[in-house]
Design goal:
Blueprint lengths: L1 H5 L2 H62 L1
């Protein structure tokens, strides 16, 4: 309303646009800074799960060989 009355509506809209663009950039930066550690944890958990699965499978195979030797 003030911009309409003073004739500076264009300037005020440009200023508001810059403000909201800066706010959006801050929110995006904040989201990505929280998202990166979460992604690293998820990838680490997946790698750990695969490693444990492989080791337990190899352990099972070795126990199978030992059972055949003694049996």
């Amino acid at each position: 309303k003030v911009g309409e009355e003073t004739g500076t509506l264009d300037d005020q809209l440009a200023s508001a646009s810059e403000y909201f663009n800066r706010e959006l950039e801050v929110k995006i930066r904040r989201f990505t800074s929280m998202f990166e550690p979460f992604t690293i944890l998820m990838v680490g958990a997946a790698v750990g799960f695969v490693a444990i699965a492989l080791v337990s499978a190899m352990y099972g195979v070795l126990n199978g060989f030992k059972a055949e030797e003694t049996g």
